[in-house]
Amino acid sequence: MVVAFLAEEGINHECKLCNQMFDSPAKLLCHLIEHSFEGMGGTFKCPVCFTVFVQANKLQQHIFAVHGQEDKIYDCSQCPQKFFFQTELQPLPVMAVGRPDSMDVEVEGVLQPAPAGPGRDMCLGC
């Protein structure tokens, strides 16, 4: 299953990391896999079983054929979607303390912005 935020074939799908356009969600997802492994010597390691591939599309095929939804390790903090690669997520925008849409936390009675990091990422569709 291609992630839900990647719309149908035939319309342009933009990579939010480099603004490159793709004509299908599968091509965009394969491109995001390539972003995940930049600078790693041209190999692509499965994040679940650690099998190594020399082509991003072979890793993509492996993930869809072998691993299911329960193997996805990255969560969107804004919706129930889960992902295999962190590049399918983006950091939540920094919001002003006290705004109703912010994710502020109270520390000793003082409202402060929630820390960045895991759990503060949202999918590209949110």
TrEMBL record:
Domain of life per record: Eukaryota
Signal peptide positions on this chain: none
GO terms, molecular function: zinc ion binding
Residues covered by the C2H2-type domain: 13-40, 44-72
SMART domains hit by this protein: ZnF_C2H2
Keywords: Metal-binding, Zinc, Zinc-finger
InterPro entries, alphabetized: Znf_C2H2_sf (IPR036236), Znf_C2H2_type (IPR013087)
Protein name (Swiss-Prot/TrEMBL): Zinc finger protein 423
Species for this entry: Galemys pyrenaicus
